[in-house]
Each structure stands twice: as C-alpha cells, then as structure tokens.
Amino acid sequence: MSASVSVSDSVSSPLVGVWLIGARGSVATTVVAGCAAMTAGLHPPTGLVTETPAFADSGLPPLASLVFGGHDTVDCPLPKRAEALAAGGVLPPGLPTAVAAELAAADREIRPGGPATGDTRTEQELIEAFAADIEDFVQRRGLARTVVVNVASTEPSAVGRALPPSSLYAAAALRAGCPYANFTPSTGLHHPALAESAEASGLPYAGRDGKTGQTLLRSVLGPMFTQRALTVRAWSGANLLGGGDGAALADPAAAAAKNAGKERVLADTLGTTPEGEVHIDDVPALGDWKTAWDHIAFDGFLGTRMILQTIWQGCDSALAAPLVLDLARLTVRAQEAGLSGPLGELGFFFKDPVGEGPAGLGEQYEALVGFAGRLKGTERGAGDVVGGRAEDEGQLRHEKGSSGAGSSGELW
C-alpha cells in the first residue's frame, strides 16, 4: 500500500483527529511534518508499518484525513520547532518550508497543558478543562473520530492516589470519548484510580512506551538465545541521548520508569532476569540522537563463555513518528470496528504492552498482522458509536475477552 493510495482514498474519507499530548515536542513535530510530507508525495512512507501490503484493506483512515491538535506546556510554535529539527538533521532540509501551512494549522489547534506551577485547579477541574479542549477540537473541525496519543516527556512513576499529568490527560481522553495510546512509560491509564473508568468507557486503548531502538533489538535477540538453548548470564546496557527526553530521563525516577519496560522484555523472552542493568546518561550535545549499547554475556556448548555486543545509533523522533501514526490509525480503526479495552495485538509497538500477548517481536508481528486481517472484514461494531461512546455498550467487547462499558463506575 503506497502513500498515493492513502491520499487518493482520502477524497471521500471523513476527517480523523489525532490529539497529541506533548504536541510541540520533537516527536509530535516530526509526526505532523512527516504526515504532511507523505500526503504531498514529498517522501515515501518509510518506517510506517500500516502502509505495508498487510494493511492495505484494513479500512484504516488515510494519512490525508488526519487532523492534528494537542496539549503542551511550552509555547514554541511548530514551524519554529521544525526549523530547529531540520538544523539538527532530524528533518530533511527544506521540509519545514514545504509543509509550513500544515505545521501552522496544527499549531493553531494546540492548547495549554498543565498543571502549571501555581495552578490551583483540582484534578477533576483539570480533567474537565482538557476534555473540553478535545471536544471543542472535534466539534469545530467536524471530526468523525479522534484518538489521543501521549508523546510527552517521561514522568516519574506515580506514587499514591494523586493523578500525575499523564493520567489527567488519559482521564480527559476517556471523558471526551476518545481511544487512547500511551507512547511513553508514564503512568497514563495504568493508574489504579482510572481502571474502572477505562473499563466503563467502552473505548479501546494501547500502550505503553514505544519500542523504537534498544528494546526493539532485545525483543529479537532474547527469543534467539532461548530458541538456541543458550544461557544468558548477564545483559547490561547504556543509553546516551540528549534533547528533551535526555533531560527528562536525567531524573532517576523517570529513568527507572523507562527501564522497567526494557527489563520486562528480557524477563518475558528469556524466562529469567539476567544480571545487569541499563544506565541512561543525558548528553545535551547529542540533541535528538541516541546511542544505545548492549553487552550480553552468555554460555554456549560445554559452558564456553561468549559475548555479544550491539550498538544502535538512531534519531528518536524519526524512529518514533511513523509508529505514532501507525498507532493513531489502528486505534481509531479499532474503535470504529467496535472493539474496546486493551489492544494486546498492538504489543508490537511497545516495551510494556497492555493486555495479553507474546513478548518476542516475531510473534508480536504475527499478532499484529492477524489484527489487521480481522479489521478487513469489519465495517462497524455491533453498537454504533456516537461522539466516541457506544449506544449499545453491552455489545462492545474486545475479541480477546476484555469487558466493554458497564453501568457502574464514574467516568472521569
């Protein structure tokens, strides 16, 4: 499936909203600029899984039908942010100028996030305000559906019942009737206070923590060692990165939240947790570029000790942006198909997936392709969806058995 197919199909397609949390960050800027570039035929859809043949007839919204908006706490306009990314080699030279109109249009749809320092609003008031921003976006732009995707900087793990910012935004997505995807390791819908609301919403959701580099390799190499009956004694790693993510992960609590997903992949694919840990170092001079190194000590036949080392050098935003577009299209299509609850089949994209599913990348890809195949034969769900919520909520059930909306529980 090529970009030209998506563009031509969009002529008669309804508009679909993509509401980005962290909408003026590097990843979000690359998402908006990249979508505009592919829609205009300026660049091919490299890295976009949903533009491969396996998804050709799955009824996904065309790229040209996507309309962007979001929340952020910074005020640097998207066109200016795109120029900085181009200067750093993240975006191609000249692209910010070529898609300036699309960047400006998305920037006009960005609303102040929070809570800011000194903000005295209660959690409920913040959730209502964020949800109102999303609902206004949907109504003004005449959007058929809207998905909320968290691409903001990593926050420390939540402590107690207080909702961290990522969970406030997730609750606002539920309140606005929007499916949700958490591309970060932040708490989001994982907060226990939101569990009942997520179930009662009848909405599909996916997450968490996008699998773009080091953990992508781990999800391939872990099964390899297991399948070849090789014993991994130790698996250590290091990440050197800059930019906003590097600054956020300089906080040990935020780094711990990030590393949890990396460790889970090894435990799930190896069946045990080897010695070693991942160290994350903020190197501002690297900007949006990352170097990830892994040192794997393993035993071979007759106990022969061996070593495998890997080096991954990549651009975080360029790795993440196509996956964000994939998730937005798949999650909103899942809602249209009448699915609800955790979308375990989207584990291919995440370090710490929600729902049930395999941990190895090959098996995760098979599950994803199977999911695409089921979407091909589905026009709408059993209950029609209006404003993101099901009219007949009792009929909306995820195919893996997750419960849909219920009559109990307050929706935030």
Automatic annotation (TrEMBL):
It is an enzyme of class 5 (isomerase). Residues 213-317 form the Myo-inositol-1-phosphate synthase GAPDH-like domain. Its EC number is 5.5.1.4. InterPro entries: Myo-inos-1-P_Synthase (IPR002587), Myo-inos-1-P_Synthase_GAPDH (IPR013021), NAD(P)-bd_dom_sf (IPR036291). Coiled coil: none annotated. Residues 382-412 are annotated as: Disordered. Keywords: Isomerase. SUPFAM superfamilies: Glyceraldehyde-3-phosphate dehydrogenase-like, C-terminal domain, NAD(P)-binding Rossmann-fold domains. Residues 389-401 have a biased composition (Basic and acidic residues). Pfam families: Inos-1-P_synth, NAD_binding_5. Gene3D superfamilies: Dihydrodipicolinate Reductase, domain 2, NAD(P)-binding Rossmann-like Domain. Transmembrane segments: none annotated. One of its GO terms (molecular function) is inositol-3-phosphate synthase activity. Residues 403-412 have a biased composition (Gly residues). PANTHER family: MYO-INOSITOL-1 PHOSPHATE SYNTHASE. Belongs to the myo-inositol 1-phosphate synthase family. This is Myo-inositol-1-phosphate synthase. It comes from Streptomyces pseudovenezuelae.
